[in-house]
User: Fold this.
Amino acid sequence: MVLVRSIDVSPSMVNCSCAWASDYQQLSGLYHCPYTGAVVTRTTTLDGFEEDESHTVAFMKDSLSSLNSYGYSPHPLYEYLAWIRELLGEKQSLKPFIISITESSAERLSEMLVAIQQFRASNSTWDSRLAIEFNSSCPNIKGHPPPSYHLPSLKPYLDVFARAFQDDSTLTIGLKLPPYIIATQFHDLIECISSYTRTDSGNPINPIAYFTCTNTLGNSLAFADQTPDAKADVSRFAVPPGLGGLAGEAIHALSLGNVYTFSRLLAESDDPAMREIVIIGAGGVTSPEAVRRMNRAGAKIVGCATLLGKEGVKAFEVLSRNL
Assistant:
């Protein structure tokens, strides 16, 4: 069991926000899976993302890795709220949902938060059943680079979350981060998040309850002949745009490094509120051994996407063996 502010994640394994958590059937499968401790939706926007045939995924033939050109979910926020209402209404489980959200502006993100908070307020038991994850790191959106790589772009969104948390300190907010590679990127992000710590009834508290480390590695390229179902006459690239986000075993070492670095910096922080931030480790979690490595690096919860895409919800049973 891992308590992340107001939600209890037990067992300590979740799906990552990804294409295999897009619709009601997929969410239902994840919700009823005994090996997941929470369900994370695919990243949604206020009105839905315009998806077409260029948004897809390819799995590699030589490793459990993937390359995807997906953007966000085509389903708008209100559809996810309706699906979650139906699943929570079953009353067969206390498993929480984490709603992954993003928007093109802080103003539109604020509208999403209002809708989610109204939804939470509609049932007194849902404070501990609903959390929010801000996807600040998708590398595949043309004209909208991940704000977590440019902190002046990230801060207006963090301001929105800080105001929401000021109004309701039961709100559990997470931040999905990209893979960082330079020491200053880690330190700058920690300093940025720490600047939002405030004192509540004498206790320091930060709006951000957890980090998910990491999202996919952008600007990655794979050729069609690297995939098991290559059709050279159709495309020379694994995904139509050529470039996409790399995931799975190919980024496992980098993701472990991010988890380890953030875990160490949080533990050593002079800000007591920062030491309370939980890490969800994601990136190349394709085996029980990979789960254990994430835990050793500092992740209290472990997330999975590529193996879910390959195996369906039975991926979590595979990951849970001998743990």
User: Anything to note?
Assistant: The mean pLDDT is 96. The chain is about 35% helix and 20% strand. The CA atoms of residues 91 and 135 lie 29 Å apart.
